[in-house]
Amino acid sequence: MQRESARDDGANARALRDDGANARALRDEGANARALRDKGANARAPAMTVLTLYSKPDCHLCVDAREALEGLQSELGFAISEVDITTDDRLHRAYFERIPVVALGEEELSEYFVNEQALRERFRAIL
Description:
By secondary structure, the protein is of the alpha+beta class. It has two domains: 45 residues; 78 residues, Glutaredoxin (3-Layer(aba) Sandwich), CATH 3.40.30.10. 61% of the residues lie in helices and 18% in strands. A hairpin with a 2-residue loop joins strand 3 and strand 4.
């Protein structure tokens, strides 16, 4: 009888140990699933397209260009990064006579004014 009791206690201890291991495995699987879900959500989120507006203070064409871009933001879904060319000699030399200049990365999309139709077409091509 004592042997059976000891055997039962040993079996119960193994069962509890197995249950603990199973609980840890389930907890780890849950954590892994959450990590994969979160990673997947981040991987699917598209990066915001950023248009750069090269401008300078007291430039009425630059103000017009910024207003035109702001009017297109909700339609096309981009952010505007305005760069003052007077703060950098290289930019000043490159853009002084052409501002405002709108660029997408290294590609210049417009100068002097914003061509809204050309901008829409360019966005259709990249989306």
